[in-house]
Amino acid sequence: MNMLEYKEFKQVVASTPLVSIDFLIENSEGKILLGLRNNRPAQGFWFVPGGRIRKDERLGAAFSRLLMSELGVESVFDRSKLSAPFEHFYPDNFSGADFTTHYLAFGYEISLDIDLEQLPDSQHQNYQWYSKDELLASEQVHQHTKDYFK
User: Quick check: pTM over 0.90?
Assistant: First the structure.
């Protein structure tokens, strides 16, 4: 699958909604995995891991690619549950604040125990397990993440 050049991708984000997968990972203690976002949109907020589905990429393949790149975990697509599709609107975009970003995000619930020390840091600078009550009460957790757990 070809990746778009920066200029082309910027035009896509400015013109169309993006389709993504968000991982709603709950450990055996009932806590939810969140990462502190490195990049726009939602930069500086705690957010569930996930990412964009690419053109011509099947859902199961995107799920596997994103789970591996975001968390270093082999696919558990057959053990996940689609929560619901959500719409995410952001006032900024990956390149700045000159236009908005619109996502159609598919939230998948997954039960996994993950060692936080082993997680990649390209998208998130830190990871933490939150109880549902903690994440709903925190001003540092992005509203779109909270919406998954209301």
Answer: yes
